[in-house]
Amino acid sequence: MLLFNHSFQQYNMPIEYSAHSFNYEDYFRRSAEFLGRHRWIFEQSNTKFVQAGILDALPRTWIEDFRRASNEELNQIPLARVNEAWCDDLNQFLRTMDGLLVEYERKCDGCGENSKMIRGISPKKLYEIQNLTSLIGEVCDRNETFLDFGSGLGYLSQSIHSVHQCRVLGLEGDRYRVQAALQRQMKLFPNSMKQVKYAQHFIEEDSFERIQESLKSEFLEESNPIPLAIVGLHACADLSITAIKMFLSNASISKLVIMPCCYHKLAFGSTDTTFKNFPLSDQLKDALEREPNFIGRPFLRLGCQQTSARWKTMTAEEHVSHGLAMFERSLMEAIIESDQRITKRKDTSSSNLLETYQLCDETGARLEWSDRHRKRLEELRNNYSEGGQLAEYLTCLQTCLQPICENLILLDRMCYIETEAQRRNICIRSKLVKFANDNLSPRCFVITAEKG
Ligand SMILES: C[S@@+](CC[C@H](N)C(=O)[O-])C[C@H]1O[C@@H](n2cnc3c(N)ncnc32)[C@H](O)[C@@H]1O
C-alpha cells in the first residue's frame, strides 16, 4: 500500500478561463499534442477495445502502479494527483493533464422554487432549469423576446416566463413534444398562453426568416418582438452551434444563453471521418493539422462521458462490476463476425455470458452461438485473465482525458464566437459558465454572449 497521504501531490494551478484573454492557440496546440500522443486511450469505442488490442497497449508499468493503488488512490487519479512512488511516465502523463485543466466561472444559485415546475422533474433537471433561468435573467433583458431552441416539453420556456415575465417562443423539431408542451402549459400554466407560444420547427442555419414569420403570427397583437435572445437547455449536438451561427449573423438577435449537450451526436461533414461543426475555429483546425487525426465519434463521446466527479466517489465494488461489465461487452464484440450483431437479452439472468446476449445477422434474424464463438471466447478469457481490472484502468485513463476533450469541444466554440465576431466587426462579451454542483449535474456548461 502506498503512503499516499504523504506522497500524493497536485502540481499546477488550473488555468483560469476568460474569453478575451485566453490563449486559444497555445491551449489547442498543447492539448492536441497530448491527446494525439495518448489517442490509443479513447480512439476505439468502448465496445471495441478488446478486438482492437487496446488492453495490450496499456503500459506494463502503469498496470503495476494501478494494481498497487488503493481504491482511494484510484479515485484520485483523474484529479491529477501524482504519486512519487509511481513510474515517471504515469506521473508525467498526470502532470501534463493537470496543466491542461481549466477553471471556468462557476454559478450556483437556484432561483425561487415553483411547486408546479417540480412535478415530474428530477432534482438534476430542476437544478439546471433554475440556474439557467437565473443566468438568463443576469444576461438578458425581460423586454427581449426569447427563442427557446429545442424547447422539448417547455421546461425552460415556462420557467423563464414564470420568473422573468417575458415573452417566449419555444421552437421544437418534434411535433409530439410540441403537443406535450402545449398540454403541460394548459394544465400547469394556463395564464401564460398569451406570452408563451410553441411552434414545431426543425431549426437549421437558414431558419431565421421562418422563425420571424412564426414570431409575427404567434404574437400578432403584441408590440414588435425584437430584440431577440436565443436560449436553450440541453440544445443537443449541432443545435447549439446553429444557435451560435444565427446569433452572429442576425443583428436583431442581441443575446445568446445556450447549454450544449450530446457532442457525440454531431453530424458528419462531407465524409464520415469529418464533422460539419467540429472543429469550428481556424485556431483548433491549425492545431489539429499538426497531429495524427484523433477526432472521431469516440473522441466526442469521451467529451460527454462520466466525469471525475462521479469517478472519485466510486467504491471498490463499483469499480469491479463496472470494469467487468465493460470488459465482457467488448469481449462479446470481439468474438462475432463482421456481419453479425449482438443485443443484450433482458429475459435472462444466466451467469453464462453467451446466454446473456442474442446473436443476429445483419438483417436482425436470430442466430445460434457456434463452437467457433465459444472457442474464441475461451481464448480471449485466457488471454486477459484480469480483463475486468484492465478495462477499469482504461476507464480511469479515459476519465483523466475527459475534461480535456470537453475543453477542446467547448473552447473551440468560444474561440469561434470571438474570432467570428471580430471578423464581422461586432462587439460582444462572451462567457463560458459552469454550474457548480458537480455531484448533482457534472456536465453543465453554458455559453453566453451579448452584443453591444
Ligand atoms: C436534449 S432535448 C432538451 C429538451 C429541453 N430543452 C429540455 O431540456 O427539457 C433536445 C431537444 O431539442 C430538439 N431538437 C434537436 N435538434 C433540433 C433542431 N434542429 N430544431 C428543433 N429542435 C431540435 C429535440 O427534439 C429535443 O426535444
From TrEMBL:
Pfam families: Methyltransf_32. InterPro entries: Methyltranfer_dom, METTL25, SAM-dependent_MTases_sf. Residues 124-267 form the Methyltransferase domain. This is Methyltransferase domain-containing protein. It comes from Aedes albopictus.
